[in-house]
C-alpha cells in the first residue's frame, strides 16, 4: 500500500482515535489491533503490514504513558524497523515521535530531541493529519523539561499556525495546553531570577487564560488530557501565589489521573503540589506531597522531577526541625545526582547542541541569508497576525519595494555589487523603521515593509529611505551604480483579506513603474 494512501485506510481513523484516549483505555485496544494484524499475515495487499506497524507505534506510546518503559521501547523499535522496511516515510516519522516519548519518560531528553528532529524533517508536508503537529508538540514537551521554555513556546506557536486541515481540534487543544505550560514555567523562572514583576505576572496570567480555555475545549473533545491541563493551570497559579486555586486545580488533576492510571501525571502533580505547600509555609504537607511524587516516579520508572522532589523534601523536613530526615532526603538527592551527573552532563551537552540546531533551523527558515531580513514566510505570518487588528487609529501600512533596473546593475557591475546593493537597501530600511516594524526581502530585488501605527507612517519610512539612498550610493560606489526604488503603498484601516491588500499594493507599485520608476504611489490617493 502506498505511504500516502494509508491515510484513507479504514483502520487509520480507528487507530488515530487512540491518541485522544487515556493510556488505560488505549492499551487493550491497541494490543488487540496488534494481535489481529499479526494474525492476518503479510503480502495480502490489504495493508496489514502498515496497520501492524502503526498499531505498534501507538501501543508503545500508550505503554510509555502508563510507566511500562521497557516494553514500550521494544515495541517502538519494532514499529520503526517495520516502517523502514515498508519504505513508509510518514510511518517512520510516527514511530520516531512515539519513540521520543519513551526516551523522554526514561530521562533521555537529548535522544528524544534527536528522534524529533528526524521526525520533524520526515513529516513536513505529510498527508497524515496531525503527524507534523505531533512531532512539534512532543518537541515542545521535551524542551520544556530541559528548561528551554522560550524555544518550546516558539515551536508550539509554529505548530498552531498550521492550516486547520492539517491539525485537528484535539491536537490544537494539546498544543495550546503545552504552550500554557511553557509560559507558566517561563514565568516561574523569571520570578526566581528577579525579573520585573509585570514581566512574569503578565506571562503567568497568559498561561492561566490559555489553560482555562483549553479546559473548556478538552471537556468537549479531549477529556483524556484534563489532568495535564489542570496541572499546567496549577503551575501558573502557584507563580501568582493563588495557592487555593492551585490546590483546587491539582485536586481535579489528581482525581482524573487516578481514574486514568496516568502515573506521569501523578509525578508532575506531586511536584507542583509540593512547591505550592512549601510556598504556603506548610512543610509537613510539602514533605508528604514530595514523598508521593517520589513513589509515583519509582512506580512509573521515570526520572523526571526526581531532583526537585528530593530537594523539596529536604527543605520541608528542615523547616519541621527533623534534620535526620532532611539529611536523608539531601543524601538521596546527592546519590541520585552522583549516579546521574555524568549522564546528565552528556545529555545536556547533546541536548544543547540539538536545541541550538533547532533554534538555528527555525531562525533560518524565516530569515533571508543575504540581508538578514525576514523572508517571505516570516512576512506572510506577520501579515496574517496583524491584519485583524487594523483600525482607523491603528493603521496597517504595507509597502512593496522594487530596486529599479536591478538586472542591469548585475550585468554592468557584477553580482557582488548587486548583493551589496541589496544589503545597503536592507540596512537603510531597518535603520529608518521602528523596532516593531517588519522589513522583509520577498525574493530577488523585492522588499516589503509592514508598519503599524498612524496613517502615513509607511510612506514616511519609505521617503526617508529614498532620501538617504542616493548619497549612500555615491559613498559606497563613487563610480558605481545609482540605485533607485519604485514603491507601492496601501493602508488598511479595518480588517481585510491579505490577498486584497497585497493586490492593492502591487497595483500601486506598477503604477510607479509605468510612470518611469523612482517614486512612491499610495493606493487610493
UniProtKB/TrEMBL annotation:
GO BP annotations listed = cell adhesion involved in single-species biofilm formation; negative regulation of bacterial-type flagellum-dependent cell motility
| SUPFAM superfamilies found in the cross-reference section | Nucleotide cyclase, TPR-like
CDD domains, per database record: GGDEF
| Its EC number(s) | 2.7.7.65
A single Gene Ontology MF term assigned here is: diguanylate cyclase activity
> What GO cellular-component annotations does this UniProt entry give?
plasma membrane
Cited NCBIfam families:
GGDEF
This protein is called: diguanylate cyclase
Amino acid at each position: 500500500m502506498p505511504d500516502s494512501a494509508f491515510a484513507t485506510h479504514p483502520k487509520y481513523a480507528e487507530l488515530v482515535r487512540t491518541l485522544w484516549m487515556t493510556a488505560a483505555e488505549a492499551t487493550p485496544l491497541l494490543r488487540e489491533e496488534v494481535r489481529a494484524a499479526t494474525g492476518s499475515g503479510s503480502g495480502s495487499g490489504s495493508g496489514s503490514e502498515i496497520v501492524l506497524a502503526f498499531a505498534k507505534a501507538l501501543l508503545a506510546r500508550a505503554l510509555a504513558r502508563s510507566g511500562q518503559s521497557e516494553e514500550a521501547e521494544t515495541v517502538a523499535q519494532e514499529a520503526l524497523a517495520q516502517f523502514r522496511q515498508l519504505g513508509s516515510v510518514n510511518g517512520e516519522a510516527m514511530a520516531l515521535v512515539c519513540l521520543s516519548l519513551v526516551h523522554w519518560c526514561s530521562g533521555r531528553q537529548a535522544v528524544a530531541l534527536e528522534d524529533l528532529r528526524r521526525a520533524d524533517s520526515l513529516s513536513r508536508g505529510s498527508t497524515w493529519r496531525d503527524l507534523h503537529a505531533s512531532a512539534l508538540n512532543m518537541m515542545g514537551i521535551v524542551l520544556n523539561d530541559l528548561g528551554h521554555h522560550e524555544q518550546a513556546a516558539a515551536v508550539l506557536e509554529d505548530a498552531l499556525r498550521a492550516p486547520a486541515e492539517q491539525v485537528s481540534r484535539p491536537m490544537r487543544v494539546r498544543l495550546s495546553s503545552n504552550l500554557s505550560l511553557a509560559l507558566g514555567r517561563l514565568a516561574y523562572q523569571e520570578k526566581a531570577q528577579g525579573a520585573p514583576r509585570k514581566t512574569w505576572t503578565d506571562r503567568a496570567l497568559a498561561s492561566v487564560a490559555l489553560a482555562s480555555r483549553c479546559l473548556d475545549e478538552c471537556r468537549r473533545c479531549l477529556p483524556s488530557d484534563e489532568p495535564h491541563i489542570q496541572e499546567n493551570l496549577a503551575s501558573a497559579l502557584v507563580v501568582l501565589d493563588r495557592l487555593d486555586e492551585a490546590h483546587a486545580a491539582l485536586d481535579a488533576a489528581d482525581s482524573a489521573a487516578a481514574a486514568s492510571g496516568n502515573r506521569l501525571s501523578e509525578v508532575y502533580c506531586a511536584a507542583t503540589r509540593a512547591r505550592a505547600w512549601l510556598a504556603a509555609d506548610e512543610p509537613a504537607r510539602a514533605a508528604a506531597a514530595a514523598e508521593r511524587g517520589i513513589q509515583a516516579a519509582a512506580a512509573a520508572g521515570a526520572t523526571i522531577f526526581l531532583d526537585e522532589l528530593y530537594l523539596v523534601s529536604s527543605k520541608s523536613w528542615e523547616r519541621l526541625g527533623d534534620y535526620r530526615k532532611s539529611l536523608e532526603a539531601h543524601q538521596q538527592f546527592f546519590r541520585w545526582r552522583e549516579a546521574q551527573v555524568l549522564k546528565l552532563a552528556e545529555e545536556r551537552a547533546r541536548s544543547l547542541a540539538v536545541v541550538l540546531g533547532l533554534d538555528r533551523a527555525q531562525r533560518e527558515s524565516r530569515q533571508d541569508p543575504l540581508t538578514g531580513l525576514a523572508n517571505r514566510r516570516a512576512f506572510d505570518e506577520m501579515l496574517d497576525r496583524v491584519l485583524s487588528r487594523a483600525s482607523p487609529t491603528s493603521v496597517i501600512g504595507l509597502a512593496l519595494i522594487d530596486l529599479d533596473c536591478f538586472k542591469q546593475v548585475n550585468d554592468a557591475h557584477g553580482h557582488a555589487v548587486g548583493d551589496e546593493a541589496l544589503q545597503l537597501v536592507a540596512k537603510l530600511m531597518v535603520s529608518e523603521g521602528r523596532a516593531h516594524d517588519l522589513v522583509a526581502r520577498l525574493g530577488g530585488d523585492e522588499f516589503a515593509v509592514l508598519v503599524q501605527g498612524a496613517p502615513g507612517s509607511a510612506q514616511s519610512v519609505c521617503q526617508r529611505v529614498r532620501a538617504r539612498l542616493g548619497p549612500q550610493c555615491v559613498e559606497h560606489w563613487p563610480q558605481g551604480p545609482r540605485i533607485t526604488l519604485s514603491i507601492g503603498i496601501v493602508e488598511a484601516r479595518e480588517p481585510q483579506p491579505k490577498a486584497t491588500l497585497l493586490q492593492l499594493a502591487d497595483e500601486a507599485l506598477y503604477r510607479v513603474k509605468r510612470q518611469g520608476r523612482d517614486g512612491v504611489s499610495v493606493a487610493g490617493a
